Amino acid sequence: MARRALSLSGTFPALRVLLLLLTLLLPCLRQATAGRHNYFDALHKSILFFEGQRSGKLPPDQRVRWRRDSALHDGSSAGVDLTGGYYDAGDNVKFGFPMAFTTTLLSWSVIDFGRKMGPELRNAVKAVRWATDYLLKATAVEGVVYVQVGDPYSDHNCWERPEDMDTLRTVYRIDRDHPGSDVAGETAAALAAASIVFRSRDPAYSRLLLQRAISVFEFADRYRGAYSSSLRRAACPFYCDVNGYQDELLWGAAWLHKASRRREYREYIMRNEISLHAGDTINEFGWDNKHAGINVLISKEVLMGRAGYFRSFKNNADAFICSVLPGISRTQVQYSPGGLIFKAGGSNMQHVTSLSFLLLAYSNYLSRARKVVSCGGVTASPALLRHLAKRQVDYILGDNPLGMSYMVGYGARYPLRIHHRASSLPSVHAHPTHIGCKAGSKYFLSPNPNPNLLVGAVVGGPNVTDAFPDSRPFFQESEPTTYINAPLIGLLGYFSAQA
């Protein structure tokens, strides 16, 4: 018998993983040993960020005081009330697809980690409700979902405060003749997930959310199609769904099954698992691709011994873990020299927070079931997955080669020139007179720090070499989004309780 040569990749795979994990940590050991992070403070600030993103009539308890009421006539051109909700990022458009995903992840954060949030749980629930109140308005007409308010080209041609908006507030909708199973499926998921959040807090509201989720999902499934095709000019290239709508149908069904426990959704998932490509792109999770999230969410049922018929989803979830674990041959996720998860495309932190959330959620499910994930010769324990998730959170908060926190207002050094209209322009209090569409350009191009601190905003983050230009024009690195922060709420809630 031939003797196999000894190698780290063959005989000692576990050692190889350990060495590579240490390699990822080495660039940041100096920052990491400087002091422990205040995860509760970061949690407080990351929730506060959502108040800075509010659209509509602000409530009396609004804490981000430099913001004022805005977009008070949204929906009027279509004869409906579409005030409220969130601006998704640094612009003034309300995009329904990322807003719904944000709502789903905020809800999942509260469902899994709310008990660890302490007094901040109340504010996290408020953040969910600000979104669901809007989504209920957007789905109030049966067979119609209003999916966007604001012409994106008009908006992106200006740099102005939301309080000053004079750009087109065009209303976009999907219906039977113009389907959008992707955005409708995600909206159904958001409403169903939120119904769990409010089940004991406000039973009547919870029932309304669940019934609306059922109705919206039926519409999404019956009239199939991509909203990018129906509303191409409005959706693309801003939130153009390049991944297809099939994953959102499974995602919506998974959340409806979790929220209602109805057999019809279990049967829907089993019946459509193959046709809706449940095993595709197992390491992708975000507003456009739900595959990894579907597999982790459904796997909890398998791990708890309640749904052996979903075992293929558990296999996919295990494969997801192996695909992101650094140091093994099958890894499909890149890491920067400083140890940050990196995927090609803009706003990389959305991948960091979403994938880290799944790592943490799955580690908890595995821990309760006393299970591990086998990746060839490497065993991924729940503790290892928590460590990997925590490493990403710590990088965001400042344990990185630049020693910079990528959360505005947290730590001694953080981004000062974020790509965000309201933050970069003088507030209405400081500058009561109107600032027109092009008059804001001088503030956009200014080298000065933003006058209004958008506390808690996590920006798109550094590039693959850990370099970061703190500059508004570099929007892929300097723009915050709600869907970066939403999964971070759960992560920070968990780690604040462990500190």
TrEMBL record:
Reactions the enzyme catalyzes: Endohydrolysis of (1->4)-beta-D-glucosidic linkages in cellulose, lichenin and cereal beta-D-glucans
GO biological process, one term: cellulose catabolic process
Key word Hydrolase present: yes
Domain of life: Eukaryota
Pfam families on file: Glyco_hydro_9 (PF00759)
Enzyme nomenclature, EC number: 3.2.1.4
InterPro entries linked: 6-hairpin_glycosidase_sf, 6hp_glycosidase-like_sf, Glyco_hydro_9, Glyco_hydro_9_Asp/Glu_AS, Glyco_hydro_9_His_AS
Glycoside hydrolase family domain boundaries: 39-492
GO molecular function: cellulase activity
Keywords: Carbohydrate metabolism, Cellulose degradation, Glycosidase, Hydrolase, Polysaccharide degradation, Signal
Annotated catalytic residues: 419, 470, 479
Top-level EC class: hydrolase
Claim: Signal is one of the keywords in the record: yes
Signal peptide: 1-34
Family per similarity comment: Belongs to the glycosyl hydrolase 9 (cellulase E) family.
Entry-linked PANTHER family: ENDO-1,4-BETA-GLUCANASE
Protein name stated in the entry: Endoglucanase
